[in-house]
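Per your request, structure below.
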């Protein structure tokens, strides 16, 4: 490759280098894309100190919300100007097909940042509460104030977008933040930091420290000066972060794994449902926490639906993520590929029927990089490993349901509860099912449509708190009640005689 980019870390508005470096390689080819300074515990400490100094001197929380909105909008504009280039960078670092990276990884990041800029303008940072005494002798204010130094730890599947869900509300509310990208995917976040600096975000307000989870991530999660931590990733690491955060009672937002049930009712439009099911499960090679991976199909249409799924999955084009015609790219790493293939093996061993795929695609273009065929299992029971554990790969598990009630029961029989979906031509019926599902998001006749104006997050072990939506800034603010007495008298308090006695 002719252009190996070199990146440093972004700390206190400046680029900081390190002796140790991360090699960023394309998961499609193994080629070296970039070399990035690898942060240590000391770098995390420096970034936290910079964020704390920026918080303490008020250089950001002291600005008005509308000034902050102007800066966030300027960053969104600049991201928009560079969307094509950033989509290519994302495709290079994590293997997402470039068409999808432009729309989803980068496009949604821009749209969602704009939403947070809007939130800065409209959020009730200070409002009056009910009168405390009538006639008005006392009144109350409710303020929403920044928490202080926030930290974000994000995964590799949607590196910029999932960081934006944390950076956006944190900065809109006036906090400062340290972000740790995943080891595989720091590039778009470092470009974001560059753009933020160019757009006038003051030094120290946003810091990006690439590095290993157990080193930089663990330091952020346990540091006493970090007051809030937001994490997206595996449930196992989320649990660990919760433990570390307990040390100084950090505020916490967690977006963890999922095993999204996708219910196809007997009156579904089967063409729509088949394409939607494939989109719901295969987008980003199945590497999305909100993927619909358990396909729960009404008995009456099961065979016809499976036939349609197989017909359609065979038209998916697998290959070079930089080709706009590509639907499915590589998975993130050799470990991920091997883990997915082991899950496929377990499906076979536990008695599911392999109906499509199941291996590595054949051909010279797949000799390097990490590839898994899109795969369909049928005759899956909900107690099989492939129905219980998050595979994080392009593997659909089709489960048969005798009735709608059984479909709902199977759907809710999971420790996860991030996303779910229903396919039906009867909206009332679909809504009736949606109301019964234990999931933070339910899509009816669609999938993956995460909307910045609506909350996103999980039931059960899929997480804690919500990102996005009109209350997103609540998770990045402390609520304060100010009582203002207007009477000059305290004669109904505990010391009535003393205080109501007129001066001699
Ligand atoms: P992970 O949870 O290991 O990594 C996510 C982030 O946490 C990365 O930045 C990583 O460096 C960091 N991290 C890892 N160990 C840490 C520690 N001890 N302390 C602090 N930070 C730490 O996820 P992964 O291994 O990259 O992906 C594997 C699984 O994670 C997937 O199978 C899936 O279950 C889940 N996942 C979920 C999402 C999601 O969007 N909810 C995204 C990616 C991965
Ligand atoms: Mn990991």
């Amino acid at each position: 490759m002719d252009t190996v980019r070199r990146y440093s870390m972004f700390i206190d508005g400046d680029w900081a280098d390190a002796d140790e470096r991360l090699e960023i390689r394309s998961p499609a080819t193994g080629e070296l894309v970039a070399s990035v300074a690898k942060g240590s515990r000391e770098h995390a400490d420096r970034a936290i100190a910079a964020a704390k100094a920026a918080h303490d001197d008020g250089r950001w929380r002291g600005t008005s919300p509308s000034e902050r909105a102007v800066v966030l909008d300027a960053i969104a504009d600049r991201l928009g100007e560079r969307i094509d280039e950033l989509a290519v960078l994302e495709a290079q670092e994590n293997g997402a097909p470039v068409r999808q990276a432009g729309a989803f990884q980068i496009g949604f990041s821009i749209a969602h940042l704009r939403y947070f800029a809007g939130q800065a303008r409209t959020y009730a940072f200070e409002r009056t509460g009910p009168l405390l005494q009538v006639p008005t002798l006392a009144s109350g204010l409710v303020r929403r104030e920044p928490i202080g130094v926030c930290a974000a730890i994000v995964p590799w599947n949607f590196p910029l977008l999932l960081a934006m869900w944390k950076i956006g509300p944190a900065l809109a509310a006036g906090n400062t933040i340290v972000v740790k990208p995943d080891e595989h995917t720091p590039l778009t976040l470092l470009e974001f930091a560059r753009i933020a600096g160019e757009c006038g975000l003051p030094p120290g307000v946003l810091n990006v420290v690439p590095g290993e989870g157990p080193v930089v991530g663990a330091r952020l999660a346990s540091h006493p000066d970090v007051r809030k931590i937001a994490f997206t990733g595996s449930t196992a690491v989320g649990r660990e972060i919760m433990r570390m955060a307990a040390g100084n009672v950090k505020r916490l937002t967690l977006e963890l794994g999922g095993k999204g049930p996708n219910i196809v009712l007997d009156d579904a439009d089967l063409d729509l449902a088949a394409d939607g099911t494939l989109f719901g499960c295969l987008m980003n090679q199945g590497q999305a926490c909100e993927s619909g991976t358990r396909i729960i199909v009404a008995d009456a249409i099961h065979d016809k639906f499976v036939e349609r799924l197989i017909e359609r999955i065979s038209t998916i084009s697998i290959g070079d993520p930089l080709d706009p015609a590509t639907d499915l790219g590589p998975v993130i790493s050799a470990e991920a590929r091997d883990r997915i293939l082991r899950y496929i093996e377990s499906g076979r061993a536990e008695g599911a029927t392999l109906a499509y795929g199941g291996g590595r695609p054949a051909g010279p273009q797949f000799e390097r990089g990490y590839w898994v065929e899109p795969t369909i299992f049928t005759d899956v029971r909900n107690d099989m490993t492939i129905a219980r554990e998050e595979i994080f790969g392009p593997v659909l598990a089709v489960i048969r349901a005798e009735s709608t009630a059984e479909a709902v029961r199977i759907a809710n029989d999971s420790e996860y509860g991030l996303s779910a979906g229903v396919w039906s031509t009867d909206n009332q019926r679909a809504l009736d099912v949606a109301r019964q599902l234990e999931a933070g998001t339910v899509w009816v006749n669609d999938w993956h449509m995460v909307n910045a104006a609506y909350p996103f997050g999980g039931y059960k072990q899929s997480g804690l708190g919500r990102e996005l939506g009109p209350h997103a800034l609540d998770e990045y603010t402390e609520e304060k009640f100010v009582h203002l007495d207007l009477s000059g008298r305290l004669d109904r308090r505990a010391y009535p005689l003393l205080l109501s006695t007129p001066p001699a």
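Residues 354 and 377 are 5 Å apart (CA to CA).

Regards,
D.
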